[in-house]
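Per your request, structure below.
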């Protein structure tokens, strides 16, 4: 967004400085004040014990990878990462060029359309995070169902955004905002789904695998877009949007398994809490 507004006047270097420079004070602030939370502190079964000073000592072992990969919620959240991020990789890299070259708007107007998609993504992410948590408390499967339904619904305004030739720029902006808001519902809730079905000692590894699939998709997106460019910008954009179909369907699959996986974790943590409590009682002098 910064580059789209500034490169015509100031060149390409200034954009990197404006975007990169704030990371320095943020990194310093994080190094000074961020503290790693106690493992297991947020679990209902373990919270009181850890507050009393007991330590959750479980650590990950190589044999645990089988447990991680047998978790169906994990499998489908890993799988959704690739089709979910490829469209963003294509759209964020090529959508300004698409509107410039295919819809013949100025770079600044194309950048504004992209900016509004981003604003919609932020607003939708925040709103759906609250909605997703509220639904999860009612029934865990409602959260992934919301994610899948939201993504699939977002395909409609996305297709209209890239296929309609509209003279009225505000119409593009409205479609861009709705698209960004709907397709961001999963990004706001998938991390919570992963947290709620994995043991505390497994979560770092699980999120690492999850991030790898996301990063592969984000990296492939611009490259795929470049390969498709000779076929036309419109084909490229529609190809990008089409990836949200398997993305939404895989999220709906999570709804079939998340309750069972969540309940399995709760039983395990309850057993471990009893073990911790008994060890604590046994260690106290009479």
């Amino acid at each position: 967004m910064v580059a789209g507004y500034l490169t015509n006047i100031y060149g390409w270097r200034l954009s990197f400085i404006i975007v990169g420079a704030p990371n320095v004070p943020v990194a310093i602030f994080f190094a000074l004040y961020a503290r790693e939370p106690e493992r297991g502190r947020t679990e209902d079964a373990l919270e009181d014990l850890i507050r009393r000073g007991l330590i959750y000592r479980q650590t990950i072992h190589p044999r645990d990878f089988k447990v991680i990969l047998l978790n169906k919620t994990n499998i489908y959240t890993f799988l959704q990462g690739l089709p979910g991020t490829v469209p963003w990789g294509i759209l964020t890299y090529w959508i300004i060029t698409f509107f410039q070259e295919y819809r013949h708007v100025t770079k600044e107007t194309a950048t504004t359309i992209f900016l509004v998609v981003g604003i919609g993504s932020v607003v939708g992410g925040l709103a759906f995070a609250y909605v997703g948590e509220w639904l999860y408390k009612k029934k865990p499967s409602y959260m992934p169902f919301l994610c899948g339904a939201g993504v699939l619904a977002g395909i409609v305004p996305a297709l209209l955004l890239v296929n309609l030739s509209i003279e009225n720029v505000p119409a593009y902006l409205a479609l861009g905002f709705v698209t960004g808001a709907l397709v961001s519902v999963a990004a706001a809730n998938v991390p919570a789904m992963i947290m709620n079905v994995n043991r505390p000692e497994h979560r770092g590894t699980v999120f690492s695998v999850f991030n790898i699939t996301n990063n592969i998709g984000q990296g492939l997106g611009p490259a795929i877009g470049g390969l498709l460019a000779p076929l036309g910008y419109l084909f490229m954009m529609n190809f990008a949007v089409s990836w949200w179909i398997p993305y939404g369907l895989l999220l709906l699959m999570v709804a079939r398994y998340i309750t069972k996986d969540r309940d399995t974790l709760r039983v395990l943590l309850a057993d471990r809490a009893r073990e911790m409590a008994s060890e604590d009682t046994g260690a106290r002098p009479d």
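Residues 1-35 form one domain.

Regards,
D.
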